[in-house]
Amino acid sequence: MKKYEYKVINATTIGFWKPKLETNVVTEEMNKLGQDGWELVSVMDTSVGYGQTNEILLFFKREARF
C-alpha cells in the first residue's frame, strides 16, 4: 500500500483595499515543490469578510520517502 506525506503552503495577499497575490512568487515556489515530487491536490482561500481573501492555502502531497 502506498504511503503519502503532505505539505501546506500559505500564500498571503498583500495590500488592504485591493489585496493582491504575488503570483510570480507563488509560481516559483510551486515549481520548486513540483521538481521535488510534490503534487498540488487542493487550494482553499480564507475569507476575512465581505468576500475578501486574506490568504490562500495550497495543499500538496507526494509518495512518502521514509
UniProtKB/TrEMBL annotation:
InterPro entries referenced in this protein's UniProt entry, alphabetically: YjzH-like
Domain of life: Bacteria
Name of the featured protein: DUF4177 domain-containing protein
Lineage, broadest ranks: Bacteria, Pseudomonadati, Bacteroidota, Cytophagia, Cytophagales
